[in-house]
Amino acid sequence: MDEPVFANPSPVLSWVNEASACVTRHETGLMRLDAVAADILRIRFSPSGRLTPPRPWSPVLDLPPAGLAVSELDGALQISTERLTASLDLDSGTLAFSTPDGRRFGEDLSPPTWREVLLEDTRLEHMPEPELPEGEARIGVFLNKRMAPDEGYFGFGQRTGRLDRRHRRLTNWTVDRASPGHGRGDDNLYQAHPMLMAVQPGLAWGLFLNSTWYSAFDVGGEYEDVLTVFTLGGELDYFIFAGPTPAEVVEQLTRLTGRPMLPPLWALGYHQSRWSYGSDSDVRAIAQGFRQRWIPLDAIHLDIDYMDGYRVFTWDRERFPDPAATIAALHADGIRAVTIVDPGVKQDLGGDYAVADAGVEGGYFLRRPDGELFTGWVWPDASLFPDFCSAKTRHWWGDQHDPLLGIGVDAIWCDMNEPSIVDRPFRERGVCEYPMPLSVRHGDEGEALHAETHNLYGHLMARATWEGLERHRPERRPWVLTRSGYVGTQRWAASWMGDNNAWWEHLEMSLPQLASMGLCGSPHVGVDIGGFYQHSFGELYARWIEVGAFYPFMRAHTHCDSRAQEPWSFGPEVETLARVAIEWRYRLLPYLYTLAHRAHRTGEPLFRPLLFDFPEAGHLHQIQDQIMIGPQLMIAPVCAPGVRRRLVERPPGTWYDLRAGVRVGEGPLIAEAPLGGMPIFVRGGSILTLGHVRQSTAEPLTELTLEVYPDDESVGHWTLIEDDGESFEYQDGMIAETDMSIAALSQGAELILAARRGEHRPPPRALVVRLHLPDPPAGLILDGVATEDWHWDEPLKAAELRFADDGGEHRVAPWY
Ligand code: GLC
To answer: Which residue among 89, 303, 305, 415 is the active-site one?
Structure first.
């Protein structure tokens, strides 16, 4: 195999240490290393010696910088914070990083290099211009790092393929990879996350390439054990996260790029969608279909056909004569309405489409380099595109949602925002992708090329939408769903993975896809349950919805030409299975909502690979068909036809079968997995908080069950987090936090509930405590007093006790 050709050394000529930065001049170029925080370093290298000024739309937040100590030792600069050391070799100009206990990682094989690149050197496709724009857009910068042999490379956002991307070449460029659905070879899709997490047993670290230009990672693809980072734009700019656990890497990333938004509670319920429930009577019939069949539902999505000729912010008054009445009827049934909004504004000027005229008048739409309005083809035919890099445009766009909110719309679904543009009207044959020219200028000052900001188009549209909703309805937390996004979009939106297929392969692919998104700081994710393109079928749908009940965002959605995909569309047997799956979702809500709060605080993903919770266990790092849902649950989905049992790798610790309520044996196990019975396990030491089945979250929770699963040491902790589920008042103390722990007794274990903290008062409810024990006790003791009022559930091996939840301190213990 070819050896990599590495650049000549680039010795350091001089260096200065500023309070939290170290600047080095190299024989060629300048490097600046900033201690953004003790556990986050930013490294910038500019061949020209000039660093790009900060962009006002950057997804990176300003953090209070940390102190940096710099010393020269043995021909290297040691640049250290309390958590991280960077060693810069003065002769070669290469960097390496190390942990306080001396473990080296992320080592450069050579200093950064650069050269002029051509369009053909990239994987940019269907570009309307023959060349990259002149200037920095053509300067490609490269950096090679050594890959440790036992290191896996995770993250990289939304893609096809396996969880560990070693041996792959990955590009970062948002595209509508649609018809007829993305395949394994497609690599990058609608979102761009130039973020990797390297994990070896006991050490995780992260690298976020802070480039919104076209960029790529070669993860040991071309050269074994060499990670090549490449970007257009003439400057290398990346962050190193110290870890040392996967959870800390995600915490560091989301501290830097923003914590995930806290969704309203209803958004964690079940969503039903199709392209399209396209009339008032369709929408009402779907709602009734759920309510008559007692299948829980929290939201219905209205796809593009609610609009008048796909003009955004309008309604088709024939199909929806009184949209406010349609939505009021949904609300009366406890169902929320989500409407789609695309960025392309129909170029319908001088008529009665005020949005287009106002947009032109305000200067909100993008223009070609020659000053003409840029026009591209999308659903409404020739369309104009807002410049979301401009703060005034974002404000205007946000304001356009006010009438939708006035009608009662609860949330907005942003689509086609890669942006997706084609070369002719959609209804014509031979439609081809025809992206926006890279030379289009964005920003209030026209300061950036489309080549630089393309990857942020969806991200900034989601931001404009979220901010508009927040401004116009401040009493409710906005909920926005977006197709395109970048690192940081988690602050504004949930996302789905776009147009998948009703294929077993795409059910299977959803697992690494969503797990990778979580590692990139974007926890609120899902895929179209049942598949978007092609006709779904009973067994696939049943398997998909049982997994989908554990997706952080749970929605069934399908194409207009596909067979219906409501839970009852595949006959009574599948309907029952789908109902049970959705009911599980509702029972899990108190747990999932706590996980959403945890994600909001630290970025911790809800849906995550085993390596997240078991970073020391190298043998689990490659497993992508078992998923942890928070720290307490593990699911083992079935993604193939006819399979009714499967092998499950058992991570360290004690595990229980959730449905059977009993411990499972040591070592790997063969789990029964009948249709509707996907194996679900609970980690010993958990206190799983479950609700009762409700038809929607609009119904109050009147019973909270605490399922206690002691482990071998009989210890465990959990904090249940609750609030009103809707407003921002949790930020002002209207929150309820209940600490719970499991403590060892000489026989069995007791549950200790601390008094509830915070000002939020949940509605009156019963508490049901279920202690899962190997043998039935003689009785239960509540707060030191033996109680008569309990029973032993033999099949589930649990001692159950019920009492009113007064928010006070309580202890429940067995006696023998
Ligand atoms: C895009 C979306 C899909 C939607 C369709 C029509 O393909 O990804 O979810 O149904 O457009 O709006």
So the answer is: 415
Query: Does a structural domain hold residue 769?
Result: yes
Does residue 178 register a pLDDT over 80?
no
Decide if 715 is inside a domain: yes
Whether the CB of 205 sits within 6 Å of ligand 1: no
> Does 591 sit in the ligand 1 pocket, CB within 6 Å?
no
Note if 62 is an active site residue: no
Helix, strand and coil content of the chain, in percent to the nearest 5, comes to 20, 30, 50
Helix, strand, or coil here: 695? Answer: coil
457 lines ligand 1 (CB under 6 A): no
Q: What is the pLDDT of residues 217-238, one digit of tens each?
A: 999 999 999 999 999 999 999 9
In ligand 1, the atom with minimum distance to the C-alpha of 303 is: 12
Pocket flag, ligand 1, residue 312 (CB < 6 Å)? no
The predicted pLDDT at position 181 comes to: 67
Give the pLDDT confidence score for residue 1 in this predicted structure.
37
pLDDT at 2: 47
Output the domain CATH number for residue 732. 2.60.40.1180
Neighbours of 180 (CB within 10 A): 11
CB 413 within 8 A of CB 404: no
532 Cα to the center of ligand 1, angstroms:
9
Looking at the whole model, is its pTM more than 0.90? yes
Q: Per the domain annotation, does 741 fall within a domain?
A: yes
Amino acid at 494: A
Q: Is 418 a catalytic residue?
A: yes
Nearest in space to 367 (alpha carbons), one of 345, 384, 350:
384
The predicted-structure confidence for 587-639, as pLDDT tens digits, reads as follows 999 999 999 999 999 999 999 999 999 999 999 999 999 999 999 999 999 99
CA-closest candidate to residue 457, choices 498, 418, 412, 497: 418
Q: Per-residue pLDDT for 416 more than 60?
A: yes
How much distance in Å is there from the Cα of 340 to the middle of ligand 1? 9
DSSP state of 669: E
Query: Which amino acid is located at 28 in the chain?
Result: T
What integer pLDDT is reported at residue 672 of this predicted model? 96
Residue 8 pLDDT exceeds 90: no
Cβ 717 vs Cβ 739: under 8 Å: yes
Q: Which atom of ligand 1 is nearest to the CA of 304?
A: 12
115 Cβ partners below 8 Å, 6+ apart? Answer: 139, 140, 142
Query: What's the full length of the chain, in residues?
Result: 816
The per-residue pLDDT for 748 is: 85
- What is the predicted pLDDT for the residue at 6? 57
Supply the mean pLDDT for the chain: 96
State the distance from the centre of ligand 1 to the C-alpha of 506, rounded, in angstroms.
17
Percent of the chain, pLDDT > 70?
A: 98
- Structural domain range at position 800: 700-815
d(CA 30, CA 566): 59
Over residues 697-701, the mean pLDDT reads 98
| Catalytic residue selected from 248, 305, 418, 723 | 418
Nearest CA to ligand 1 atom 4: 275
Give how many domains the chain has, as a whole number.
1
Give 703's pLDDT tier (boundaries 50, 70, 90).
very high
CA dihedral 707, 711, 717, 720 (to 10 degrees): -20
Q: In whole angstroms, how far apart are CA 475 and each of 112, 208, 264, 730, 736? A: 49, 35, 12, 12, 19
Residue 274 CA to ligand 1 centre (angstroms): 9
SS3 category, 612: helix
User: Ligand 1 atom closest to Cα of 559?
Assistant: 10
Catalytic annotation, pick one of 298, 342, 348, 499? 499
Looking at residues 731-757, what average pLDDT do you find? 95
Do the domain assignments include residue 716? yes
- State yes or no: is 657 an active-site residue: no
Phi, psi of 458 (to 5 degrees): -70, -40
DSSP state, residue 663 = B
Percentage of the chain surpassing pLDDT 90?
Answer: 93
Mutate-to-test residue for ligand 1 from 179, 275, 412, highest number of ligand atoms within 8 A of CB? 275
